Amino acid sequence: MKQIAPLRKGDSVAMAATARKVSPEEMAPAIERLRSWGLNVIVPEGLYDADNQFAGSDSHRAKLFQKLLDDDSIRAILCCRGGYGTVRIIDRLDFIHFAEHPKWIVGYSDVTVLHSHIHTTLGIPTLHATMPINFGREESSATRSLHDALFGERTDIEWDGGILCRPGIAEGIVVGGNLSILYSLCGSPSALDTHGKILLIEDLDEYLYHIDRMMFNLKRNGMLEGLAALVVGGMTDMHDNSVPFGRKAEEIVMEAVAEYSYPVVFNAPFGHLGDNNLALPLGTKMHLDGTDSKKIRIFAF
Fold first, then answer.
1. Beta-carbon neighbour count of residue 139 at 10 Å?
2. Which of 79, 91, 115, 122 is the Cys-Cys partner for 107 at CB 3.0 to 4.6 Å?
3. How many other CB atoms sit within 10 Å of the CB of residue 300?
């Protein structure tokens, strides 16, 4: 497994828009914050282009991202926001140079396309973390954890998992991200091999029966069998029909993995959780201690 060296003050990081469009006003707080960390922020020409909801055409977004992948002076690429659109450009990208000269790719939500593709095809770590669109004027837990991850601080995260957890201890490479994206990648070259790994899932703004359908699709694809552990982040702003589905998102997840014996933990501080979306390196080996549901820990070693 390739490692990525920690950033230092004076290093260059770049902004990228692989999906939904962004504006200079939306990016200003993040640029200011990154500069306060001593980083040189690259805002590529064309970042603020727009094509309906996208940050420019597929060709435009792919060309800009390719330039950032191939530029060895850039130590990390921060995807500005999610939404939808990264899957439209993933097959236009050439990762040959990146494979020899890796750098942090940072984001969550729709950026799960990049996380999954890079892990599956290259085995290079990426960073599941807050994005520039979420930066406020004040520093938050999410931005502090992003800073620490980029600058090489040890990952050690603790949280209260609630009452539904299946306790246990696990070690393994952490993979995953947004459940809807993982579901959409099944059967493609970007789909994850989850066997023996700690799988992270989170989602936003979904109907409960959609969560059920996606979990059973992952199960039928073998992605829930043989895990080291399952870590469930934010299941945020879920919806129900006029005829209730009858289960909460967490109960749907637990039902889908009921026949397995690995640890399952909930309420993890990852995903669409605003200031509580903490940075977690994907594609790296982590230790999960879920023996006490009130004090769950995941950390690098």
1. 14
2. 79
3. 16
What amino acid is encoded at 67 in this protein? K
> For residue 137, what pLDDT is reported?
79
What tokens does 47 get? 């970042």
Please identify which residue in the block is written with the tokens 């920690």. 6
Where helices occur in 71-111 by DSSP H, the ranges are: 96-100
pLDDT of res. 2:
79
**Size of the chain, expressed as the number of residues it contains:** 301
Phi first, then psi: give them for residue 296, nearest 5 degrees.
-80, 140
Calpha distance 288→266 (Å, rounded):
12
> Do 180 and 111 meet the contact criterion of CB atoms below 8 Å apart?
no
Residue given tokens 């129900």 in the structure block: 240
The token pair that represents 38 in the structure block? 């001593």
Kindly list the structural domains of the chain, giving each domain's residue range(s) and its CATH number in brackets, ordered by start: 12-150 (3.40.50.10740), 156-300 (3.50.30.60)
Q: Sheet of 40-42: strands edge to edge?
A: 40-42, 12-16, 74-79, 104-107, 126-128, 280-282
- CA quadruple 232, 89, 61, 15: dihedral sign: positive
User: What is the per-residue pLDDT for 138?
Assistant: 82
Report which DSSP code applies to 157: E
Question: CA 243, 241, 53: angle at the middle one, nearest 5?
Answer: 165
DSSP β-ladder status, 198-204 and 169-178: parallel
Predicted TM-score (pTM) of this structure: 0.97
The answer to whether 215 and 244 are in contact (CB under 8 A) is no
CA angle 7, 170, 160 (to 5 degrees): 80
The rounded radius of gyration (Å) of the Cα atoms in the chain is 18
Average pLDDT per block of 10 residues along the chain, 301 residues long:
91 98 98 98 98 98 98 98 98 98 98 98 98 92 97 94 93 98 98 98 98 98 98 97 96 98 97 96 97 95 76
Contact 118, 105 (CB under 8 A): yes
